[in-house]
Protein backbone atom coordinates (compact mmCIF):
# COMPACT_ATOMS: atom_id res chain seq x y z
CA UNK A 1 0.00 0.00 0.00
CA UNK A 2 1.39 3.42 -0.95
CA UNK A 3 1.99 6.11 1.63
CA UNK A 4 -0.55 8.90 1.38
CA UNK A 5 1.35 11.93 0.18
CA UNK A 6 -1.16 14.14 2.00
CA UNK A 7 -0.18 12.67 5.38
CA UNK A 8 3.61 13.01 5.04
CA UNK A 9 5.74 16.10 4.87
CA UNK A 10 9.28 16.30 3.55
CA UNK A 11 11.92 18.66 4.91
CA UNK A 12 15.67 18.93 5.32
CA UNK A 13 17.27 17.40 8.41
CA UNK A 14 18.66 19.66 11.11
CA UNK A 15 21.07 18.94 14.00
CA UNK A 16 18.06 18.41 16.28
CA UNK A 17 16.96 15.48 14.09
CA UNK A 18 20.09 13.37 14.60
CA UNK A 19 18.89 11.53 17.72
CA UNK A 20 15.44 10.63 16.32
CA UNK A 21 17.16 9.44 13.13
CA UNK A 22 19.47 7.22 15.18
CA UNK A 23 16.33 5.47 16.44
CA UNK A 24 14.84 5.12 12.96
CA UNK A 25 18.12 3.75 11.59
CA UNK A 26 18.49 1.16 14.37
CA UNK A 27 14.83 0.11 14.27
CA UNK A 28 14.94 -0.22 10.49
CA UNK A 29 18.04 -2.41 10.51
CA UNK A 30 17.02 -4.50 13.53
CA UNK A 31 13.57 -5.23 12.14
CA UNK A 32 13.75 -5.17 8.36
CA UNK A 33 17.10 -6.95 7.97
CA UNK A 34 15.83 -10.08 9.76
CA UNK A 35 15.93 -13.01 7.36
CA UNK A 36 18.34 -11.23 5.00
CA UNK A 37 21.39 -10.84 7.23
CA UNK A 38 22.92 -12.78 10.12
CA UNK A 39 22.32 -11.65 13.70
CA UNK A 40 25.99 -10.59 13.93
CA UNK A 41 25.69 -8.51 10.76
CA UNK A 42 22.50 -6.87 12.04
CA UNK A 43 24.05 -6.07 15.42
CA UNK A 44 27.10 -4.42 13.85
CA UNK A 45 25.06 -2.57 11.25
CA UNK A 46 22.46 -1.29 13.74
CA UNK A 47 25.21 -0.39 16.21
CA UNK A 48 26.43 2.34 13.88
CA UNK A 49 23.48 4.44 15.08
CA UNK A 50 25.43 5.06 18.30
CA UNK A 51 28.70 6.00 16.60
CA UNK A 52 29.80 9.63 16.87
CA UNK A 53 30.16 9.71 13.07
CA UNK A 54 26.44 8.98 12.63
CA UNK A 55 25.61 12.67 13.01
CA UNK A 56 28.02 13.55 10.21
CA UNK A 57 26.30 10.94 8.03
CA UNK A 58 23.06 12.87 8.49
CA UNK A 59 24.29 16.47 8.41
CA UNK A 60 27.05 16.41 5.77
CA UNK A 61 24.94 15.16 2.86
CA UNK A 62 21.66 16.83 2.02
CA UNK A 63 19.33 14.65 4.09
CA UNK A 64 15.61 14.72 3.48
CA UNK A 65 13.28 13.68 6.27
CA UNK A 66 9.78 12.30 5.92
CA UNK A 67 7.49 13.16 8.80
CA UNK A 68 3.94 12.48 9.88
CA UNK A 69 2.54 14.96 12.39
CA UNK A 70 6.07 16.41 12.59
CA UNK A 71 7.51 13.05 13.76
CA UNK A 72 10.34 11.65 11.58
CA UNK A 73 9.52 8.31 9.95
CA UNK A 74 12.30 8.00 7.36
CA UNK A 75 15.24 9.74 5.73
CA UNK A 76 17.41 9.80 2.62
CA UNK A 77 20.75 11.57 2.28
CA UNK A 78 22.47 12.50 -0.95
CA UNK A 79 25.81 14.19 -1.53
CA UNK A 80 26.38 16.86 -4.22
CA UNK A 81 28.48 14.29 -6.10
CA UNK A 82 25.36 12.16 -6.55
CA UNK A 83 26.29 9.55 -3.95
CA UNK A 84 23.20 8.36 -2.07
CA UNK A 85 24.54 8.18 1.47
CA UNK A 86 21.47 6.83 3.27
CA UNK A 87 17.94 5.55 2.82
CA UNK A 88 16.11 4.29 5.91
CA UNK A 89 12.43 3.99 6.81
CA UNK A 90 11.01 3.17 10.23
CA UNK A 91 9.63 -0.41 10.09
CA UNK A 92 6.12 0.80 11.00
CA UNK A 93 6.08 2.70 7.68
CA UNK A 94 8.08 0.27 5.51
CA UNK A 95 6.87 -1.32 2.29
CA UNK A 96 4.33 1.41 1.59
CA UNK A 97 6.25 3.48 -0.95
CA UNK A 98 7.99 5.82 1.48
CA UNK A 99 11.50 4.75 0.45
CA UNK A 100 10.69 5.54 -3.17
CA UNK A 101 9.17 8.90 -2.15
CA UNK A 102 12.29 9.81 -0.19
CA UNK A 103 14.73 8.67 -2.86
CA UNK A 104 12.81 10.48 -5.60
CA UNK A 105 12.82 13.70 -3.53
CA UNK A 106 16.57 13.40 -2.92
CA UNK A 107 17.27 12.86 -6.63
CA UNK A 108 15.18 15.91 -7.46
CA UNK A 109 17.16 17.99 -4.95
CA UNK A 110 20.42 16.80 -6.52
CA UNK A 111 19.26 17.02 -10.12
CA UNK A 112 22.76 17.70 -11.48
CA UNK A 113 25.24 15.65 -9.47
CA UNK A 114 28.85 16.70 -9.98
CA UNK A 115 29.79 13.21 -11.16
CA UNK A 116 27.07 13.26 -13.81
CA UNK A 117 25.32 10.22 -12.35
CA UNK A 118 23.89 8.97 -9.07
CA UNK A 119 25.59 6.13 -7.20
CA UNK A 120 24.58 4.03 -4.19
CA UNK A 121 25.75 1.01 -2.26
CA UNK A 122 22.48 -0.84 -1.75
CA UNK A 123 21.63 -3.55 0.72
CA UNK A 124 19.38 -6.49 -0.06
CA UNK A 125 16.62 -4.38 1.49
CA UNK A 126 17.10 -1.21 -0.52
CA UNK A 127 18.13 -2.65 -3.87
CA UNK A 128 14.52 -2.97 -5.16
CA UNK A 129 13.83 0.69 -4.30
CA UNK A 130 16.84 1.81 -6.34
CA UNK A 131 15.87 -0.46 -9.23
CA UNK A 132 12.33 0.99 -9.30
CA UNK A 133 13.83 4.43 -9.84
CA UNK A 134 16.10 3.41 -12.70
CA UNK A 135 19.30 2.38 -10.93
CA UNK A 136 21.12 -0.63 -12.30
CA UNK A 137 23.71 -2.81 -10.64
CA UNK A 138 27.24 -2.08 -11.83
CA UNK A 139 29.19 -4.06 -9.28
CA UNK A 140 29.31 -5.99 -6.05
CA UNK A 141 31.23 -4.64 -3.09
CA UNK A 142 32.64 -6.61 -0.17
CA UNK A 143 33.04 -4.42 2.90
CA UNK A 144 33.93 -4.99 6.51
CA UNK A 145 32.47 -3.37 9.62
CA UNK A 146 34.15 -4.21 12.91
CA UNK A 147 35.36 -7.54 11.54
CA UNK A 148 32.02 -8.59 10.04
CA UNK A 149 31.74 -8.90 6.27
CA UNK A 150 28.95 -7.36 4.23
CA UNK A 151 28.08 -7.57 0.57
CA UNK A 152 26.58 -4.48 -1.04
CA UNK A 153 25.29 -3.83 -4.53
CA UNK A 154 26.87 -0.91 -6.35
CA UNK A 155 23.98 0.81 -8.10
CA UNK A 156 24.21 3.54 -10.74
CA UNK A 157 21.69 5.75 -12.46
CA UNK A 158 22.63 8.07 -15.28
CA UNK A 159 21.23 11.60 -15.17
CA UNK A 160 19.57 10.98 -18.52
CA UNK A 161 17.52 8.13 -17.05
CA UNK A 162 13.80 8.49 -17.49
CA UNK A 163 12.68 5.37 -15.68
CA UNK A 164 8.98 4.88 -15.13
CA UNK A 165 7.94 6.63 -11.97
CA UNK A 166 11.21 8.52 -11.67
TrEMBL record:
InterPro entries: Acyl_CoA_acyltransferase (IPR016181), GNAT_dom (IPR000182), N-acetyltrans/Recomb-assoc (IPR052564)
Residues covered by the N-acetyltransferase domain: 8-160
Protein name in UniProt: N-acetyltransferase domain-containing protein
Species the sequence originates in: Thiohalocapsa halophila
Organism phylogeny: Bacteria, Pseudomonadati, Pseudomonadota, Gammaproteobacteria, Chromatiales
